[in-house]
Structure to design on (245 residues):
């Protein structure tokens, strides 16, 4: 882990986007690894202790993928609602781990389920962030046909976040698939326009447009190495920075 004793976050407010698959041990049949979630919570704790205001958006792909279910004949809207519920399960797991680390946090759901989470309200979420709570945004946007990438971009725009951190299983944005092309080039920085013209896979089109329109940079980094979440949130040069140039 990095030494964060005197580190100060360079951002006031940020959104961390976690994929659901990141919470699962590779090769395991368990949907959620408590050890992985605890490790992520520890790294978040180390990043927010000096005042960073943080929102977290987590996907649900370790449980369910609406698009895949739709391709197999399920009604797409229904399939997407199932996926939204999957994100709530992941959000509750992250909340539990953060509380175990002594981090004040709360889950806000875009679908009302008052027994397990607050209903999302923008002003209330902003107050929680100002009060030092990590806010975990669950159930996507509350509407079908939108990805959790779009949720991250939407919540970042609504919360006035300075940056989105997208934690992935690769160490940045490449000009081609590094798993298929050993000569793939990784970008340290790339502009929104370059991503569009070169069709680089950063986020889906709706999410990307929101970030462009609201001038919110995206930092894509590898979740795997120990300490990378803390390093990213504290501004260490890591992964690829996508911005307006």
């Amino acid at each position: 882990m990095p030494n964060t004793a005197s580190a100060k976050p360079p951002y006031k407010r940020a959104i961390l986007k976690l994929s659901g698959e990141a919470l699962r041990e590779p090769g395991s049949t368990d949907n959620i690894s408590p050890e992985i979630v605890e490790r992520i919570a520890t790294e978040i704790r180390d990043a927010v202790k000096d005042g960073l205001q943080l929102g977290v958006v987590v996907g649900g792909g370790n449980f369910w993928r609406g698009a895949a279910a739709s391709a197999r004949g399920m009604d797409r809207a229904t399939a997407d609602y199932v996926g939204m519920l999957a994100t709530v399960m992941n959000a509750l797991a992250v909340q539990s781990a953060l509380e175990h680390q002594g981090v004040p946090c709360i889950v806000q759901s875009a679908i009302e389920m008052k027994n397990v989470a607050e209903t999302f309200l923008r002003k209330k979420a902003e107050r929680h962030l100002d009060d030092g709570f990590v806010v975990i945004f669950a159930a996507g946007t509350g509407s079908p046909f939108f990805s959790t990438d779009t949720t991250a971009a939407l919540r970042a725009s609504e919360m006035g976040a300075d940056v989105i951190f997208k934690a992935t299983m690769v160490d940045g944005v490449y000009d081609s698939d590094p798993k298929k092309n050993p000569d793939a080039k990784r970008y340290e920085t790339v502009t929104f326009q370059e991503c569009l013209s070169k069709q680089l896979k950063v986020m889906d089109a709706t999410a990307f447009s929101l970030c462009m329109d609201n001038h919110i940079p995206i930092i894509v980094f590898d979740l795997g190495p120990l300490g990378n979440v803390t390093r990213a949130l504290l501004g260490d040069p890591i992964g690829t920075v996508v911005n307006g140039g």
Summary: The chain is about 35% helix and 20% strand. The radius of gyration is 17 Å.
